[in-house]
Amino acid sequence: MTRELQGMRVAILATDGVERVELDQPRGALQGAGAKTEIVSLHPGEIQARQFDLNAAGTFPVDRLVADASVDDYHALLLPGGTMNPDQLRMDRDAVRFVRDFMAGGKPVASICHGPWTLAEADAVRGRRLTSWPSIRTDLRNAGAEVVDDQEVVVDGQLVTSRGPADLPAFCAAVVEQFARAHHPMPG
């Protein structure tokens, strides 16, 4: 187990309908590298996870409400997908502000599957190169993004994106690598 993210605090912004594997696997990779993760959400208690959007897949305890969270409390942000999860997040003023503040502050952000919907709502994809689940690519293009269809992971500065669950091994590796680069910048 490596510790390259020791001392890093990562917010995982998610709500009901989050795709379980897209929260579990990146969180495990981050924690395995030494990061502390917190689930930041729209309501207290627990959020309902899904598998393939259709099947109940347990719950996750919420650590903090997004209305009470500050970008200053975290070093990086993870936006998992699932269709319902980002659709609800992009309708919440506090969630959109939280994402916008991360992007404006230059802190690392990773998003998979439908997660970039919230980035688009925060007007944070204009001029960015990224990838996503196929069904939201037109939305991202309309928001000014350059969308890549044929890569499992796309890194554009502070932003790491991926297409979906099949790309999780590559996504998790890229997230740890990019977050470590931001956490311990190379002298230069």
UniProtKB/TrEMBL annotation:
Pfam families from the UniProt entry: DJ-1_PfpI (PF01965)
DJ-1/PfpI domain span: 8-178
Alphabetical list of CDD domains matching this protein: GATase1_PfpI_like
Source species, domain of life: Bacteria
Gene3D superfamilies to which the protein is assigned, alphabetical: 3.40.50.880
Family classification: Belongs to the peptidase C56 family.
Protein name: Peptidase C56 PfpI
Taxonomic placement: Bacteria, Bacillati, Actinomycetota, Actinomycetes, Kitasatosporales
